[in-house]
Amino acid sequence: GENVEQHPSTLSVQEGDSAVIKCTYSDSASNYFPWYKQELGKRPQLIIDIRSNVGEKKDQRIAVTLNKTAKHFSLHITETQPEDSAVYFCAATNNDYKLSFGAGTTVTVRA
Amino acid sequence: DGGITQSPKYLFRKEGQNVTLSCEQNLNHDAMYWYRQDPGQGLRLIYYSQIVNDFQKGDIAEGYSVSREKKESFPLTVTSAQKNPTAFYLCASSIWDSADTQYFGPGTRLTVL
After folding, report:
1. What is the mean pLDDT of chain B?
2. Looking at CA atoms only, how far is residue A97 from chain B in angstroms?
3. Is B40 helix (H, G, I), strand (E, B) or coil?
């Protein structure tokens, strides 16, 4: 099955700086890579996703890049704000309707 | 994801008891999923169902059971065979032909007393 590894497990950044979270996956057939944000005690919310036919996708301050050759993808948050503080999860699937999740990254934005 | 509801929000179980967690969706999604979340371990798949009256085991199905008698409902029973059930349980759903995009319910926090 798919194995997704996520780094770092914790990330502390100064407000206004950028944050980068990296994930690697094992199944070369994986073709869909969503990112979820989970605030404390809340449900995970989809914030951005990318499919294997695209190398990069951007939505305002959030961007995701995908390197299929190296089997890794990354989340980039620019101009971080206190409300960006949360746990972020990457995931991957080869379209067998099961998502494999990374262990999560706790992001803290310092004011 | 506002169309997925879970109840109760908090649930306490005594040793040896079975408990059932409710998950309902009004999004007309075909596929539904149950995940367990423990600190530092991400989300682990318990069971999933792609269609009514059919479901498959996920990665950690032991000690759990499900049913899918209606499209909008996918209840999870945590049996006494589950030795460490204290966790946050999340239900999710997705459209059949875009089953990779999953939307989550608010979760149920189960505590064993």
Report:
1. 91
2. 5
3. coil
Tell me the β-bridge partners of B5: B24
Percent of chain B that is helix, strand, coil (3-state, to 5): 5, 50, 45
Q: Which of A1, A45, A93 is the closest to B100 by Cβ?
A: A93
Are the beta carbons of B90 and A45 separated by less than 8 Å?
no
Q: Tens of pLDDT along B46-82?
A: 999 999 999 999 999 999 999 999 999 999 999 988 8
Instruction: Please check whether residue B90 is in contact with residue A87, taking contact to mean a CB–CB distance below 8 angstroms.
Output: no
Q: Is some CB atom of chain B closer than 8 A to the CB atom of A47? A: no
Which residues in chain A are contacts of B45 at CB distance < 8 A? 98-99
With 80 as the cut, is the pLDDT of residue A107 above it? yes
> What's the rounded Cα separation, in Å, for the pair B98 and A104?
24
- Summarised one tens digit per residue, pLDDT across range A7-33 is 999 999 999 999 999 999 999 999 999
Measured in angstroms, the CA of A17 and the nearest CA of chain B are apart by 25
